[in-house]
Amino acid sequence: MMRNPGCLSLFLATLVILFLSLIFVDFLDTTLHKLGMSHVGATCALFGIFIGSFINIPVQFLRREEEVFNEPNSLYGMGFGVPDMRRARSFTILAVNVGGCLVPAAIAVMQIVRIIAWGSETLTVMVAITLLVTVVTYYLARPIEGRGIAMPALIPPVVAAIPSYFFAGSHAPSVAFVAGTIGTLVGADLLHLEDIKRINVAVASIGGAGTFDGIVLSGMLAAFLA
């Protein structure tokens, strides 16, 4: 009896996705533990990042002279969403993504408190590396029609991790996380808000869509590498 090759391919693809998801979750959990978070705290942060990636909080409505069309698949940090149902709008919604902005920023604030307690030398290193990441991500980020702001995801964490490893000593994970997260958030998103007014996009989400990977991976991977 011949098996359906389509079903077998779907089954294998599902197994691969589950396996990669488990690896990614374990990677994030390990990274959060390196940042001094408890098991409960790390678990809550993971849920906040994944569930929050589907939640955008509107903060401003920007009126447009021309109509813009929403792209449902670009509303969420993970890059997928509801079926495509285009609707014309006369405004752009500026929103904040919970999983790609608020949760990483909250973790970064916790790390900044720790860094301040470690002394001015570590704090100075953190500020310097954060400024470096901000400059790099500012020039890497690009406004894209229908999506908002997008940027390469792997360069910022490397930029944050390497100097943190050499100059922050045992505090490198925390310094790298703050630099990778805050630097990317400021450089890629906040400093490009004016660009949103010049592109055709219905929803521009800070920490969502094109910069979700940049912000979350920058912080997590930078801390892991450090």
Automatic annotation (TrEMBL):
Keywords from the UniProt entry: Membrane, Transmembrane, Transmembrane helix
Pfam families to which the protein is assigned, alphabetical: DUF1614 (PF07758)
Bilayer-spanning residue ranges: 35-55, 94-117, 123-141, 148-168, 174-191, 203-225
Entry protein name: DUF1614 domain-containing protein
Organism: Kolteria novifilia
